[in-house]
Amino acid sequence: MKNARAELLETYRSVRRMTESLCEPLETEDYVIQSMPDASPAKWHLAHTSWFFETFVLAKGMPGYRPLDPRYRYLFNSYYYAVGPMHARPERGLISRPTVGDVYAYRHHVDEAMHRFLEEADPPTFERFSFVITLGLNHCQQHQELLLTDLKHAFWKNPLLPTYRKYPHIAAKDAVPLRWIEFGEGVRAIGHAGHEFAFDNESPRHRVFAAPFQLAHRLVTNGEYLEFVTSGGYEKPELWLSDGWNARLEENWNAPLYWLKGDPGWQQFTLGGLRELHPAEPVCHVSYYEADAYARWAGARLPTEAEWEIAAMDVPVTGRFLESQHHHPGPAGEERALTQLYGDAWQWTQSAYSAYPGYKPLKGALGEYNGKFMSGQMVLRGASCVTPRSHARSTYRNFFPPKMRWQFVGIRLAS
Ligand SMILES: [Fe+2]
Question: How far is the CA of 212 from the centre of ligand 1 (A)?
Fold first, then answer.
């Protein structure tokens, strides 16, 4: 039987390898640019995820560890004030030095030390740091998703609309009719419990009351959303939340991000380039405000996060994830039960991101990981086509400000 140490080392190697394999299609220039303050350059993702292990494991738990360059502590800190000051987030794209080569050397420096730490740390030290290492690997996986969402946005901002890589051609097909799945009322427990890894914001497990509700068995499709667009959904303030209508005016939204009105029809930008809009695919890259307005127009609403979790807790975690290499949401299959809970696109919920009753952030600087963002953001559930498979679970709470559209986020209706 493999011991915990060997298992963690193997996971460490495979997660770190995955990040680098996602960068294989990139040219040097692609690593450096930052297309907006919310997105980070690929190079920064590579360095920051290494900084995490250096700061929270090696500097604290490995006697004699020497950082490759002490200035990286400032350069690649994201938002941990307890660690120290940091480079301004909107200016990450200005860091032309260290070079891409330097950043890879930094990764290898950290990886070598981490391999040594995982092999040689005495049992109490290993015990003390194994959770933080697992947290660091989950952090790497979050940045794998961000790496692709940020690259997609950077390519979109380039008038040449370059592609990340080639994908096999997918023929358009008809959408399966939408069905409603019923759930009875009751008191149910949601949230994380047990020994498997989860972020602090998923705990504690607690009871909630849910009135009877229905969930759409699949995600809203492009074809359905196009009806909202062509019927003037973006011109009717009565469908929109006040903040949403203001955002729609300020940003001049007329359709989801990455949609282009072409001749003859709508097109959609993907990591594989521009192509015609497939009506059966899930609509994606919509803000919370658009999801909410669409739901109102459709005579429905968005689910609460508790409803989503109650519906998902007994459903196996399957779907089109990062590893399936589509990097784009695909149409629902013929299944009649709840589908597309995971993979394809995250789903906006109408729940504000806040603490579960009795929530305790992690101790020390890592308490800044999740807890301090519990204001002004909405919870998303599920996982997307660029989420690693092992990163998805029914208790997972993702969160973004309601205006954000560059993540792979779609719509599941409730009523
Ligand atoms: Fe991070």
Answer: 38
Instruction: From first to last of the 415 residues of the chain, give the pLDDT tens digit.
Output: 468 999 999 999 999 999 999 999 999 999 999 999 999 999 999 999 999 999 999 999 999 999 999 999 999 999 999 999 999 999 999 999 999 999 999 999 999 999 999 999 999 999 999 999 999 999 999 999 999 999 999 999 999 999 999 998 877 788 999 999 999 999 999 999 999 999 999 999 999 999 999 999 999 999 999 999 999 999 999 999 999 999 999 999 999 999 999 888 999 999 999 999 999 999 999 999 999 999 999 999 999 999 999 999 999 999 999 999 999 999 999 888 999 999 999 999 999 999 999 999 999 999 999 999 999 999 999 999 999 999 999 999 999 999 999 999 999 999 9
C-alpha 231 – ligand 1 centre gap (Å): 40
Ligand 1 mean position, distance from CA 49 (Å): 6
Angle at which helices 100-120 and 123-156 cross, to 10°: 160
Distance 156 CA to ligand 1 centre (A): 23
CA of 143 to the centre of ligand 1 (A): 7
- Tell me how far the alpha carbon of residue 214 lies from the centroid of ligand 1, in angstroms: 36
The structure tokens listed for 257 are 């991000």
Q: Cα–Cα distances in Å, from 287 out to 17, 243, 253, 283?
A: 32, 12, 10, 11
d(CA 380, CA 389): 17
Distance 77 CA to ligand 1 centre (A): 8
